[in-house]
Amino acid sequence: MNGKQFLHRKSAFGYNRCFNARTILLLFLLAISLNVSGCKKNEIPGPGSQLMASKRVAVPGAPRYSDVCFSSRWKHPANAADTLQTFPVAAAFHASRLDWVYNDDKTWIQEVKKRGYQYGGTVNANLPDTKGGQTLGRILDSGGARLTAPWMEGWGVFWGCVNSDDYRATYLAHTKRLIDAGADFIQVDDPRMNMAAMAWGGCYCSFCKSKAAASGATVKDIQKASVEDFFKDMGKQLDAYAGHHVPFSSNNYNSDWTSPYHLFDFGMAELPVKEANPQIIYAKFKATEKLGKAQVFTFVSEDVNFTRRVIATSYASGGHLIVPWDVYLKSTPTGSVRYYGRPEEYADLYGFVRGNAALMDGYEDAAVSGKNLTDSRYSKPFVTITGGSEEVYAFIRTIPEKTNQAIALHLVEWGTHAEPFSVSLDMSGMGIDKDWEFTLLLPDAYSKNKHDQAEATGDYARLIKSTSLKPQIQDNRVILEIPALSPYAIIKIKKQ
Ligand SMILES: [Zn+2]
Q1: Last residue of some domain: 355, 375, 400?
Q2: What total of structural domains would you count in the chain?
């Protein structure tokens, strides 16, 4: 879908983005208080530690923390003239999943699965009739004309009505086809459907008019409940068809969990540039986690260093940023202009997370600190950073309910001029002592040959530069000297 237009549509609906941000921060504060009260005493990394991480509810279909989400929005090459290639590029970025792909061809999806990827197919609000065309069960205006989204004018597509038996049949046919083809989960683009169409003058189809008349309501009154009923009912039917729960995600712009987005297992959507800072990224992933959901973001920027900071902060917060390749930039009369990042710009970060799977999967948020990032779970930060750009952020992640485990301290540089800095760790607070091992893990500088070998062997650890750090002890604190980051590092803290 068209991200920019979606933003405009939100404004048209009177959504206030500041209000949304405040709401999320409030949710986050609530989450923190729940975390503290619900923490068990044994949720500690080492003897005497005050660090607390809570177990997270498993979210169906959501990526593991070390997964690399890649969205070839369509299959490439699509034809003989297409120079893009899905599989070589996915491999170059070390993808583990293909997410949000518009393709339901069984032969191709079986090839995707054979190559070891999880596959997420996509449906949207304007699925074609099974016999082709866009005629059956469409949203109609009061004059009986088919409607489409304002940003799709001229594309020859028309939105389907959730109350129409015909469109329900169309939706089921498309989703069953994806299940039959081997899709592991399904992304729904534009899930507001009839709720969105109210602003464009719909829907006045016979199904909506009869449904409204039966309850003495207007067609506008029934649409929110109708959309919710649609997804609940379709979900039940598809689970029964598949014989297991079919995970669904939705395009919930900016991590919106209001109706109908709350009905989906997880969200996969654009993070707006204005909200891309460490405080808000962390708060959004944290608020999502408290709702028992998961969020995967896409990001629209051609600023490579900015995007790298967002990638690193997402992973450090327990979230994901889809590889910036095939990303929507702007709409055109025939489609969109898209951005294709290069492996030499981002693959070092994605290879780094694959190589650190053992330090990421199973780990949960235990503490954070940094400029304007205060952790209200604790009276004082366990990590303080001095020197450098003063814009390095720390994210401590531990395995809940396990003692004497390795602690993962993620560090992300947000300063535009990265400089060396010192990390100071509270020994008693973290339950560590000077004899623990402190290992600095950095993404190794990009080399195509090295990355090709790592992908061929599955040994991503070779993409990590590992250095043993020599701790200095001062006033019950461990002091570690860290070089300038570009922009990501993990310090592995482990009992010897
Ligand atoms: Zn209708």
Answers
A1: 355
A2: 2
CATH number at residue 370: 2.60.40.1180
* 119 and 193 belong to one structural domain: yes
Q: Are residues 245 and 371 in the same domain?
A: no
User: What are the residues whose beta carbon lies below 5 Å from ligand 1 (ion)?
Assistant: 161, 163, 203, 205, 208
Residue-wise DSSP of 97-154: EEEEE----HHHHHHHHHTT-EEEEEE-SSPPPTTSSS-TTB-B-TTS-B---GGGTT
* pLDDT top residue among 37 and 403: 403
DSSP state of 371: T
- Domain span holding position 373: 364-494
Rounded to the nearest angstrom, the distance between the alpha carbon of 17 and the centre of ligand 1 is: 30
* CATH number, domain containing residue 221: 3.20.20.80
With the CA atoms of 100, 106, 108 and 113 taken in that order, what torsion angle do they form, in degrees rounded to the nearest 10? Answer: 70
The alpha carbon of 226 and the centre of ligand 1 are apart by a number of angstroms equal to 10
Q: How far is the CA of 3 from the centre of ligand 1 (A)?
A: 25
Which pLDDT score, from 0 to 100, does residue 2 have?
40
Reported as a single tens digit per residue, the pLDDT across 426-453 is 999 999 988 899 999 999 999 999 999 9
Taking a C-beta distance cutoff of 8 angstroms, is the pair 176, 113 a contact?
Answer: no
- Whether the predicted model's global pTM rises above the 0.85 cut: yes
User: In the predicted model, what is the mean pLDDT of residues 71-93?
Assistant: 94
Kindly report, residue by residue over 367-421, the tens digit of the pLDDT: 999 999 989 999 889 999 999 999 999 999 999 987 778 999 999 999 999 999 9
105 C-alpha to ligand 1 centroid (Å): 30
Residue 327 burial class via C-beta count within 10 angstroms: exposed 0-12, middle 13-18, buried 19 and up: buried
Final residue belonging to a domain, choices 297, 326, 355: 355
Segment among 3-12, 431-440, 485-494 with least mean pLDDT: 3-12
Q: Are residues 251 and 378 both part of a single domain? A: no
Q: Does residue 287 fall inside a structural domain?
A: yes
